Fold this sequence. Notes:
single chain, 239 residues, mainly beta, five-stranded antiparallel β-sheet, 5 helices, 19 strands, 14% helix, globular
Amino acid sequence: xxxxxVVAGHCGTRSFEGSSFTACRYDAREHEIELLLDDxxxxxxxxxxxxxxxxxxxxxxLFAMNAGMYDEEGRPIGLYEEQGRERHGxxxxxxxxxxxxxxNGVLTVTADGSVAVVASDEWDSDRxxxxxxxxxxxxxxxxxxxxxxxxQPNAPPLNIRNGVGVAGARTAWFVISDEPVSxxxxxxxxxxxxxxxxxxxxxxxxxxxxxxxxxxxxxGYEFGPIVAVFRxxxxxxxx
Length: 239
């Protein structure tokens, strides 16, 4: 991986167990992070509409990625919070599909930009009070340094996958595989290559990245919540 490019907030590629991944680094000391869902017409569902919503802020964007699972209209099916306002509550229901592959989890960001990935059953009132941005997805990939108990080493299906891992309170890695990979390999990449003790799966079939510096803007898929990282530390840090 091009370490200088990643430290600057851009994305770099890395080989792991014979597969290629693109990883984008968020640093709370240098960057701002936001979750976005709607424009004036409802859920944006694409990077084209996100670009239109951002307007001049587009110049500060380092990268954006689909984040958190959603219904047919693109609305969150689990916890979703923007600027401290909860728009959908935590979802601990049982059901089919990857979201309900327990434990699932939450990416949460506090006002000073600190990040954490926590299992949904660890979400409590203290976490809720301190959270400014949050998105729930599933399954967890890595939990306190251990792989999700239901993830097999290299079992099918293979798929393009994306997710987020937290290496510390100030550092998160947003990753998309450059080729179809198993859940197991994807989880091990976070744990063994990026040294993230906690990591969360975002999605498979629709996994998409917008990396302006690389002139990459994946298209052709509709998704729900979007995570966006910009130049500049949070106001509480910059003051």
